[in-house]
Amino acid sequence: MKLPVLNDEKTESAGGCSSSGCGSSASAMDHLPDTIRDKVANHPCFSEQAHHYFARMHVAVAPACNIQCNYCNRKYDCSNESRPGVVSEVLSPAQAVKKVKAVAAAIPQMSVLGIAGPGDPLANPQRTFETFRRLSEEAPDIKLCVSTNGLNLPACAEEISKHNIDHVTITINCVDPEIGARIYPWIFWENRRIRGVEAARILIEQQQKGLEMLIERGVLVKVNSVMIPGINDEHLKEVSRIVKEKGAFLHNVMPIIAEAEHGTYFGLTGQREPTAAELEALQDACAGDMNMMRHCRQCRADAVGLLGEDRGEEFTLDKIDAMEVDYEAAMVQRAEVQQQLLAQLNSQRNKLQNQVQEQPIRILPPSRPVKMAVATKGGGIINQHFGHATEFLVYEASQKGVRFIGHRQVDKPYCEGGSSCGDDGETVLQSIVRQLEDCEVLLCSKVGYEPWSALEEAGIQPDGEHAMEPIEEAVQAVYQQMLARGLAEKPADQQQSLSQLQTA
Ligand SMILES: C[S@@+](CC[C@H](N)C(=O)[O-])C[C@H]1O[C@@H](n2cnc3c(N)ncnc32)[C@H](O)[C@@H]1O
Ligand code: SF4
Ligand code: SF4
C-alpha cells in the first residue's frame, strides 16, 4: 500500500494561500486518508501538530546490538545526558510493563510506547516482543512503536504486524555500500562478524527488504537518517527519494551528535556536527520529494514525557514500586483527556484554515520569509519564560503560511546560567543568542531586561505580547504586522532579479 505524497511545501500552498499569505503546517494532516490520519493524529513523532499535546515514552528493554555504528556508544547509568542510546537502567519485560502502566496512569496524554534500545530492539526479539505482547493485552489503549537498524527486520516483519505495532522506524543512513563502509565498521550476521563494504551491502539489502515488507503489511514507516557532514550528507537526498518511492511515510534527517567525550569513533576522529542551517537546507532539499520530520529531539532510550522534556527521574523502578495503579480507571481518564486534546488540536487547525479562507485577497509587495523563535512548555501555546526555556522552536512565516522548521536546544536555561562563562569564554546568554541568530523575533511569555537588550542588539525582537496565544496564530499575526510596517519586504535587488526572470 503506497501512501499519498505529502510534504510541507506542497501542503502549505494547497491550503489555498493567496497573496494575502496565510496558511499553516496544520493543513498537512488534512490531505491524509482518514485511516492514516487516525493513526497519526495523537502520535507525537509522526505528527508535528500532535507533539505539542501528546507525550511518548521509551522502555529500555533491548541492551544488545547486532551492528556497530561509528557514532554510537551505548553508555548506561547516565541520567544527565540526553541522546540516543543512553539509559539509566535496563528493564526486564515485566518491569517495563509495570513502568508503562504507572506512567500512563500519571500522564494521561502519554499515547505512545516505543522500544528504541539502548541497543537494537530486533537484536533482542524475545525481550522486545514479550514486552509488546503483554502491553497489547494489559494496556490496549497505548500505541506501540519500534525503532531498528533494520538488519533483522525481514525476519521480524510478520511478527511486528501480528503484534499490532503500526508505527516502525528504520535507520537508513545510505543506499551505497561504499558510503556505508565509512559509517558501519561491522555487522553480526548469520553467526559471523562481517566487516567493510560487504557488511554495509548486507545491511542495506536487509533494510530495503524490511521496508518493502512493512509497507506491504500496511505498517506506517518512518525512516531516520543521521546526517554526517562529508560522508552521507549529499547522498541522503538519494536515500530520501528511494524510501519515499517505496512508500515510507516520513523521513527524519537528524544531525550526528559526535562529541569526543562520548567515546565514539566519530567523536574521537573529530567528525564535525552539521550547523542548524546545514541541517535545515538538507531537510528542505529532501522535502521536495518527501514528508519530513523536523521536530525529533533525539531522545534517550528511556525518555518519558512530551518531546523536549524528560520526566524519567519521576519513574525510576523504586518509585514505581511505591505507586498503586488502577489501570482500568486510568484508561477511562486517559480516553477522556486524549479526546479533549484531539478536540483542541482539531479546533486550532480549523481556526487556522478558516483564517486562510476569510483573508481578503490583497496585493502586497513581494515579501521575504521571516524566522521566529518560540518558547513553549507544550499545548501548542506561547507559555514559557525566556529564562526557563531549555529549547526554542523555530517557525518560518512567509506569504505561503507558517511552517515549523526546527528546534534549537540550549546547553543551560538563561535563569540557571545567568551571565556565567563556559570553557570557551561565552556566557550562557551569548550562547543562546548565537543559537537564535538567524531569527528576527523571539516570542515568549516573559523576558527580563538583560536578555531583552542582548536579543535586540543581535537583531532579534523580543515579544511577550502574545503570551498564552496559539503559536502559529501568533507567528502569523506578528508577520502580518511586519508586512504592514514594511519590515518583511524582499530586498530590492531580489525583486528586480525576480521580475527579470519573469520577463525572460
Ligand atoms: C539509539 S538508536 C536505537 C534504535 C536502533 N538501534 C537504531 O539504530 O535504529 C535510535 C536512533 O538514534 C540514532 N543515533 C544513535 N547515536 C546517535 C548519534 N551519536 N548521533 C545521532 N543519532 C544517533 C540512531 O541512528 C537511531 O536512529
Ligand atoms: S544500530 Fe542503533 S544501537 Fe546499534 S550501534 Fe547503531 S545506533 Fe547504536
Ligand atoms: S527520538 Fe525522535 S522519533 Fe524517537 S521518540 Fe524522540 S522525537 Fe520521537
From TrEMBL:
* Keyword Iron-sulfur recorded: yes
Concerning InterPro entries, the annotation shows:
Aldolase_TIM, Di-Nase_FeMo-co_biosynth, DiNase_FeMo-co_biosyn_sf, MoaA_NifB_PqqE_Fe-S-bd_CS, Nase_CF_NifB, NifB_C, rSAM, rSAM_sf
Is the keyword Hydrolase in the record? no
The molecular function terms in GO held by this entry are:
4 iron, 4 sulfur cluster binding; lyase activity; metal ion binding
Q: What does this protein do?
A: Involved in the biosynthesis of the iron-molybdenum cofactor (FeMo-co or M-cluster) found in the dinitrogenase enzyme of the nitrogenase complex in nitrogen-fixing microorganisms. NifB catalyzes the crucial step of radical SAM-dependent carbide insertion that occurs concomitant with the insertion of a 9th sulfur and the rearrangement/coupling of two [4Fe-4S] clusters into a [8Fe-9S-C] cluster, the precursor to the M-cluster.
Could you identify this protein by its name? FeMo cofactor biosynthesis protein NifB
Q: Which residues lie in coiled coils?
A: 320-358
Q: Where is the composition biased (Low complexity)?
A: 13-23
Keywords attached to this Swiss-Prot or TrEMBL record, sorted alphabetically, are: 4Fe-4S, Coiled coil, Iron, Iron-sulfur, Lyase, Metal-binding, Nitrogen fixation, S-adenosyl-L-methionine
